Amino acid sequence: MKCRAGLAGADSRCERCAKKSIDCVFQLHRRGRKPGTRITRAWQASPTRASQQASQYGALTGSSYHASLTPVSQIHEDVSSTEPSDLQPSGLLNLEAGKFSLHYILGSGNGDNVNSSPVPCSLSNDDPIHLGLINLQLAGCLFQSFMDVLNPYICQLDPDLHTLSYVREKSPFLFTAVLAMAAKAFDTTMYRPLYDHANQLMGVSFCQGTKSTECAQAIMILTYWKEPQDTRAWTLLGYVIRMCMDLDWHKLKPPSLQYQQAMSDEQRREARNIERTWYVLFVYDRSISLQTGRPFMIEQNQFIDSIEEWCKDPMSLANDYFLGALVKLRLETSAAFSLLGFRQRRSYTASLHETEPLLALIHGRIQDWENRWIDLTKVVEPADDINCHHFLILFYGTHLRLQLFLLPLQNALASDKAESYSGLEVLWIAYSSAIDLLQVVSQRSSQLYIAQDSVHIMIAYAAAFLVKLLLLAPKAMVAKIEPSIIDAMRNAALALSQQSPPSGSSCALQAAFLDKITSNLTAKSKSDTRPTSSRLTPLPAEADDVTSKDSGLFSIEGTDNIFEATNLDLQLTNDEGWASIFAQSGFDLEEGIF
Asked: Are residues 362 and 288 part of one domain?
């Protein structure tokens, strides 16, 4: 016999339960539901009930900040309930996202303590303000600086949702990561203790298996502005993606209008916070895949394709439009690299005629993308704001154009027929893209001062290509382009050094990198005694005597033979020569580091 719902009054127990002196618990019928599904109850979703449950759980776990993390199931539609029954282990055993363990699979349900995992540290023990690492006033200044200046570069947090009190209460890990990165940019004296504490909290979260939006955001923020010797970016990104997949984020679907209308503003912001983080992970995943040559993890699906509708939501921010631009850029060119990579492995003459129409199409689509999203960001952003989005859209578009147009050039420039190479348009667009990227750097150097590390590797990529072009291109072309290349590098290095960046920062390393290459190119140009030939430098097969003549061109701080002719390869991903010169300048390309 079931208890009746809707009882009111001081004693809300039904007559039967009152006579038997037992708790009166009303249960909805479960007839016809497959095993493992849950019934969403309106009384469970009420703010009063949620706050009571949070306070009770916090008392049991020592006021743990993990208890305040918002469950994904409370703010997103049940993605599993609409799927057909699955007789595989994932369908029969995985009852709840993020809780695939023996305890949840084999639990008897006889009052077992489901929260029997190790008790996390309390808020008071983790909070950097309580620990005395920073005072509240300075923390407020750093937090606001992060939201105003750094956050637009990464589109990670919602200023309307992520206030100081909200982030501090939700997750000391995220709070500390934000303060550490802000201190690295604006108050270096506070950076080291905050950074060490953030790494300690990351280790605690990993050991305890914490899975939450805030944990994912904190780890990503720590990878955007890393220490020069940090080699964890690729590994940490993979861990975060696996964590979010364990929370079923890869099953996200565009929310229906009816479901959105049933949510409060705070719930909608919480939902968009999860969706925004998954979009950021998609862009981050594809970007690292392109720069390292390693496979990506997040597949394109209906939710990823609906990015434009997501940006048109009334709650969208200016940062959301820029994030939408990056997602669309990856979608527009997702198939281009596989197509060009396959064709460039064939004979270069046949490959060139086949790829030129495709390259022309991609070139036009990138230009259309730039124009469209620059106009959109201008509309949604106030005119008096320091607009980094306009700069970044131009920068990312130019870099992607360069990377795409280099694919068919590999075999062509490495061929004995380079002097008669007919794809001058492809070569010129690649050269122009690299020059344009360096010119953007010199014109927007103030915005590069705080740009994430991946931007600086893109600059180094453009410089590396231009140097190799001088070594491999026909002599007549080199005579025309060498002065422009040296000027572009010199101006970019000067603009970066004028920002007075701290020693060891990405901006300082980039300035030293470009300055050293420029000075060596200038010195080599003045003392060039190469014999006349169809190319300035013989190909790897003929380069037995080139190393002794060119070994000083790229030597940095006494390191010789960094660029031998055997390393002249337009594919920069696994080039030991470029890894060596980057390491001498302070960059580390191993393990996917940017």
From this structure: no
**Which residue bears the tokens 């001062």?**
449
Q: What domain range includes position 401?
A: 333-592
pLDDT tens digits, one per residue of 184-234: 999 999 999 999 999 999 999 999 999 999 999 999 999 999 888 888 999
CA nearest neighbour of 358 among 348, 345, 343: 343
Q: What is the pLDDT of residues 328-369, one digit of tens each?
A: 999 988 777 777 765 555 544 445 667 778 888 888 899 999
Return the amino acid letter for 232. R
Write down the H helix ranges in 381-505. Answer: 388-406, 409-413, 424-443, 445-448, 453-472, 475-497
Rounded alpha-carbon distances, angstroms, from residue 192 to 229, 352, 378, 379, 450: 15, 52, 37, 39, 17
Supply the mean pLDDT for the chain.
Answer: 75
Q: Residue 393's closest CA among 405, 406, 381?
A: 381
516 in Cβ contact with 556 (< 8 Å): yes
Do 268 and 159 lie in a common domain? yes
Q: What is the DSSP letter of 111?
A: S
pTM check: above 0.85: no
Q: Does some domain include residue 481?
A: yes
| Distance of alpha carbon 196 from alpha carbon 183, whole angstroms | 12
